[in-house]
């Protein structure tokens, strides 16, 4: 296959994945934009609460993500029974995790205060989490069932269910935050209710689809019966994925905590910059997922030249996306930030000043974040995950977080310094993970084919 052929194949495979990630991102973006219109304190609180919720969600999400390769393997063997067993135990494990996480969501205020957050922002964030936390259960089940469908290569329906969720969330937020269409004006609590409703609607939609279109899998047949053999398989694969997720998202959560130490306005500006950077990262994440699938196919055939070409192409595509986003962030910083804050907001000038600097760092951030995402994608494709997990964790926590604190608070660079630390942590991960793939992992793949 030529380089152009690889690019076309990756684009065809990656576009639905990118669309699904962007639709999922739109749910969080809607909360940020509408609460930014409602008030800066509410925006700061939902930024803090969102980071807190997301850390817990992504740890449980590792268990959900483990379903995809197990379902794909069973499907290749025509083993519908194993597909049901795998998915059912994934639902079991994520429900158990949700129960454990609920305590941390319900009693989040003392934890946030212990982490140095201001009492007014921590109180608002805790109010939001006591409501939005109930969405943890349906959200994790939706993730399990999406992984099940993706393992069966049914990515289009995953995209459309996520789009439905984004629309429901936007409608719910508009009604309940501001009191539109006769609904009560509930502010940040309204955003929490809308999030829970969104997750429940998504869960109903994905269950109905699975039962109607794939009745042969009988996902909920004898659902109450334990299956300890399959429980162990899901756990063994899911926990390392969850720990990798934890190391990355907790780095961003820690950066939000540090920004909270600087005050409500810097935290709000940080929330806007993170949302904008996350939007473009969804493209890298979709390309990373496509890279995993493509590398996995080449790994199964032991086709090293094909894998090498594909890895080069997907990395170049990621770098091209980074270049475009860097230009946009540097050229249109103030208009982009202005989308999140009302013109009559008293702190508008301060938010624009801080946010413009942070977007300058976000431009550099894009470059290294995209590369490390692609590296993780190709490494998972060749089933090399244990050592990359350690590399990523050390990069994020031994380099990124200490550097953020030193640059932000010891050297007095404040928000710019916090973001500079993030860039260094991600750059370290990108270098180590790419070196791991090209220096070792790909060399274990045979060269029987010419690619």
From TrEMBL:
It is found in: Cell inner membrane. InterPro entries: MATE_fam (IPR002528), MATE_MdtK (IPR050222), MdtK-like (IPR048279). Coiled coil: none annotated. The gene is mdtK. One of its GO terms (biological process) is monoatomic ion transport. Keywords: Antiport, Cell membrane, Ion transport, Membrane, Transmembrane, Transmembrane helix, Transport. It holds the Pfam family MatE. GO terms for molecular function: antiporter activity; xenobiotic transmembrane transporter activity. This is Multidrug-efflux transporter. It comes from the Bacteria. Its main location: membrane. NCBIfam families: matE (TIGR00797). One of its GO terms (cellular component) is plasma membrane. The keyword NADP does not apply. It is a multi-pass membrane protein. The chain crosses the membrane at residues 49-71, 91-108, 128-145, 157-176, 188-214, 234-261, 267-290, 311-333, 348-368, 389-410, 416-435.
């Amino acid at each position: 296959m030529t380089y152009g052929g690889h690019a076309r194949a990756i684009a065809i495979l990656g576009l639905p994945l990118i669309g699904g990630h962007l639709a999922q991102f739109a749910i969080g973006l809607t909360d940020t934009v509408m609460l930014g219109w409602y008030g800066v304190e509410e925006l700061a609180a939902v930024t803090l609460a969102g980071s807190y919720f997301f850390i817990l969600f992504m740890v449980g999400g590792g268990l959900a993500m483990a379903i995809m390769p197990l379902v794909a393997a069973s499907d290749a063997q025509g083993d519908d029974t194993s597909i049901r067993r795998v998915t059912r135990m994934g639902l079991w494990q994520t429900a158990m995790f949700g129960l454990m996480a609920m305590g941390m969501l319900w009693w989040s205020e003392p934890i946030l205060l212990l982490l140095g957050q201001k009492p007014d922002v921590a109180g608002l964030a805790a109010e939001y989490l006591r409501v939005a936390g109930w969405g943890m259960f349906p959200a994790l089940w939706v993730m399990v069932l999406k992984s099940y469908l993706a393992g069966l290569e049914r990515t289009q329906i995953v995209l459309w269910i996520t789009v439905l969720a984004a629309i429901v969330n936007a409608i719910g937020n508009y009604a309940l935050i501001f009191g539109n269409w006769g609904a009560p004006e509930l502010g940040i609590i309204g955003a929490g209710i809308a999030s829970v409703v969104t997750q429940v609607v998504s869960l109903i939609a994905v269950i109905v689809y699975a039962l109607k279109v794939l009745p042969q899998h009988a996902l909920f047949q004898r659902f109450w019966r334990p299956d300890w053999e399959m429980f162990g398989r899901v756990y063994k694969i899911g926990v390392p994925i969850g720990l990798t997720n934890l190391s990355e998202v907790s780095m961003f959560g820690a950066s939000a905590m540090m920004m909270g130490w600087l005050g409500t306005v810097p935290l709000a500006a940080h929330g806007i910059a993170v949302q904008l950077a996350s939007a473009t990262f969804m493209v890298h994440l979709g390309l990373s997922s496509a890279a995993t699938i493509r590398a996995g196919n080449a790994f199964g055939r032991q086709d090293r030249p094909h894998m090498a070409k594909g890895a080069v192409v997907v990395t170049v595509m990621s770098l091209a996306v980074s270049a475009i986003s860097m230009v946009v962030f540097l050229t249109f910083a103030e208009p982009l930030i202005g989308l999140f804050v009302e013109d009559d907001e008293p702190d508008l000038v301060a938010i624009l000043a801080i946010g413009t600097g942070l977007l300058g760092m976000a431009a550099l951030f894009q470059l290294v974040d995209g590369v490390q995402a692609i590296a993780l994608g190709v490494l998972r494709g060749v089933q090399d995950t244990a050592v990359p997990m350690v590399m990523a964790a050390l990069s994020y926590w031994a380099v990124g977080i200490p550097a953020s604190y030193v640059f932000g608070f010891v050297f007095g660079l404040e928000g710019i310094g916090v973001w500079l630390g993030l860039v260094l942590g991600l750059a370290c991960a990108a270098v180590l993970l790419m070196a791991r793939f090209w220096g070792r992992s790909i060399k274990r793949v045979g060269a029987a084919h010419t690619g």
